[in-house]
Amino acid sequence: MQPLSGTGVSAFFLKGFSGYPALEHLLFPLCSVMYLVTLLGNTAIVAVSVLDVHLHTPMYFFLGNLSTLYICYTSTFVPLMLVHLLSSRKTISFTGCAIQMSLSLSTGSTECLLLAIMAYDRYLAICQPLRYRVLMNHRLCVLLVGAAWVLCLLKSVTETVIAMRLPFCGHHVVSHFTCEILAVLKLTCGNTSVSEVFLLVGSILLLPVPLAFICLSYLLILATILRVPSAPGRRKAFSTCSAHLAVVLLFYSTIIFTYMKPKSKEAHISDEVFTVLYAMVTPMLNPIIYSLRNKEVKEATKKAWGRSWTSR
């Protein structure tokens, strides 16, 4: 079996759920609805955050970026996945695979950092209220978010280039519904140690480290809230970060369940179905959680909706 250089590969076949036609017919309407809700809900969050001057604060600046990220993340794989669910031709070009891999890695990594930045913002707002506006100024907000986007993009492009330059042998069937880097690496016949080291270091820096930072932030927030003398004051303090905490718990619980559970020797279709759902559930629920848990978002949405009707 002659190895093919990475640049000699023209296309990959994304196996996905091709062996389960009935499941494909079930997933198509389900994923279509979830993707539509994700686009509409997160676009509404971004629009409200921009249009309402009362929401021009660090918290909603970060929330707008998180919603933008969810739109970008789901758009990296869902449209093509929906096409493949209805088609027997499930191929993706080599360049398309590399772009999809890089963007998916980048947006997923940026989410980890954004959630940590938002936890830091809530820590300053509750634990340092008098100095909050000085410490979390607009320049720092832009710097933190810009650094998260740029650093994660550079990291992801580096990981993608290293992986896609490896020689590929034999078949080019990716046992996944997207160009997931670990699934693509299984097709190579070269030395993957460098790529695996990069992925391991990136996983450590972007999963346990931000999670530990988030946990520390909320421990300090909890300690501050418990020192508030009045019950209404405690409820008001906690309500400012409850929506973010719900998103963090949802994101990390699904990640831990997916990657920390015991792995069987053979891949099960149930694992792939859960991967599809977890990748779409958090982006879809983000606007719902913030709309239900945040009075300011609800009020701004009502005002924007009212203005849109009166303008007609």
Automatic annotation (TrEMBL):
Gene Ontology BP terms: detection of chemical stimulus involved in sensory perception of smell
Residue span, G-protein coupled receptors family 1 profile domain: 41-290
SUPFAM superfamilies xref list: Family A G protein-coupled receptor-like (SSF81321)
Residue ranges the record marks as coiled coil: none
PROSITE patterns referenced in this protein's UniProt entry, alphabetically: G_PROTEIN_RECEP_F1_1 (PS00237), G_PROTEIN_RECEP_F1_2 (PS50262)
Keyword RNA-binding: no
Topology of the protein relative to the lipid bilayer: Multi-pass membrane protein
GO MF, any single term: olfactory receptor activity
Membrane-spanning parts: 26-48, 60-86, 98-120, 140-158, 197-225, 237-260, 272-292
Subcellular location: Cell membrane
Keyword Coiled coil: no
Annotated keywords: Cell membrane, G-protein coupled receptor, Membrane, Olfaction, Receptor, Sensory transduction, Transducer, Transmembrane, Transmembrane helix
Main location as per UniProt: membrane
GO cellular component terms, semicolon-separated: plasma membrane
Family indicated by similarity: Belongs to the G-protein coupled receptor 1 family.
Protein name: Olfactory receptor
Source organism phylogeny: Eukaryota, Metazoa, Chordata, Craniata, Vertebrata
Gene this chain is encoded by: LOC695187
